[in-house]
Amino acid sequence: MTEARTQRDAVVPFIVDIPRNLIIGFLLGYRKLISPIYGDVCKYFPSCSAYALEAVTVHGAVKGVYLATKRVFRCNPFSHGGIDQVPDGRRIWPEGKLPKIMVMNHPPIPADEDEDAANAARGA
Amino acid sequence: MGFFDTILWPFQFVVTWILRICHEILTAIGLNETSGWNWTLSIVLLVLLIRAALIPVFVKQIKAQRAMQALQPDLRKLQAKYKGKKDQLSQQAMLAEQRELFKRHKTNPLSSCLPLLIQMPFFFALFHSLNNARGASENEEGIGQLTVTQTHHFADSSIFGAGLSDTFLGTFNSGSPQISVILISVVMILAMVASQFITQKQIMTKNMTKEALEGPFMQQQKMMLYILPLVFGIGGINFPIGVLIYWTATNLWTLGQQYWIIRNNPTPGSQAERELNERRAAKGLPPIHEKKKKAEEETPEEPELPKVQRSQPQRKNRRKK
Fold this sequence. Notes:
Low-confidence stretches of chain B: 299-311
Largest sheet of chain A: 2 strands, parallel
Membrane topology (chain B): Multi-pass membrane protein
Radius of gyration of chain A: 18 Å
Helix content of chain A: 55-70%
Order of helices and strands of chain B: HHHHHHEEHHHHHHHH
Number of helices of chain B: 14
Strand order of the largest sheet of chain B: 1-2
Helix content of chain B: over 70%
Pfam family, one (chain B): 60KD_IMP
Oligomer: heterodimer
Protein name (chain B): Membrane protein insertase YidC
Low-confidence stretches of chain A: none
Keywords (chain B): Cell membrane, Chaperone, Membrane, Protein transport, Transmembrane, Transmembrane helix, Transport
Mean pLDDT of chain A: 80
Strand content of chain B: under 5%
Largest interface: A-B, 36 and 43 residues
Subunit structure (chain B): Interacts with the Sec translocase complex via SecD. Specifically interacts with transmembrane segments of nascent integral membrane proteins during membrane integration.
Distance between the termini of chain B: 45 Å
């Protein structure tokens, strides 16, 4: 994979990216068509499909699918959920070309208006 | 064996084994060995077993929903924080904060998709078994754990003249369509759509708070209400009658389960909760969650008071660990 990236050949990266792009296409279709029907049930943020999409985008088909599978099993009726981000990858995107899923999965969280109340709630 | 068969094999083993045991028990208590009703009941028993095995998951979810009461003040605060912020990034941030809140309180009312994912391979295994029943029967082979004789019976079984392994599309395209298959498929599809529709409608009209009824989630719910019948329709004409029996039975179970939740564990602030409280008042019982609500109303600024009462479910958790 790294070899393919260093040779900035137009064809090799394209072929290497085929499995990744197939999975990305499938996930985008799922999120557009099936996910809305099934509703909002995921215990985590980002949801399992968003996690999978980011994982495959950042880590490629093999590691991405592995990470996503682990996540789906983590998201079971006996877990408490929470925020669970994809581990950082080595892939770097040029300025302004960050994939949309990366933006959506890492929203800036505005500070609470009354920080004291929030801290009190956290301390309880 | 192909890739798909290999993955399905253990599930097919379980499904056919349960079917076989059910069929043998039903035959022992006097049902005709070759009757389609015997196999139909066996499939219904399979559904009951799978859904009963998932009851602990369901109980867990109800407990989480009950604990939601304690989260209400924090959830309202969150809603206030993001009021009017409708852009996608703010919505995402709100979702993230909400999930974090659930984690902090160690209670999560969301069901996760695993209950559905677990049922899928069993469903496909039954589908696969019914689809291959004819072929295996003609080749004098057994399917999964079914003996050759049982496979013959399974492949040839029918109710009202419609074979359990026949499909609507199959008979429609065969040149000489069987009216019985078409009729039973259509009745089953209608039953599935109706049960799904009622389940969904029940949630929407009775078990949602005013805020939820006006939120973006409602749009999704509405979409689901009208798209799912389409999914059932398209799926239904492709699936063998036996699979439709399975699907209808599992839908009816969901309907009953949902009815029970809405009646006994309604969402705080919903129509169903008001109805429950009316029933409780008629019996001379205090409204459900009354104490907690009063505490909230009296001291909306001070988060300390509800927290004192909140410690109870936490203690329970600790004891378990």
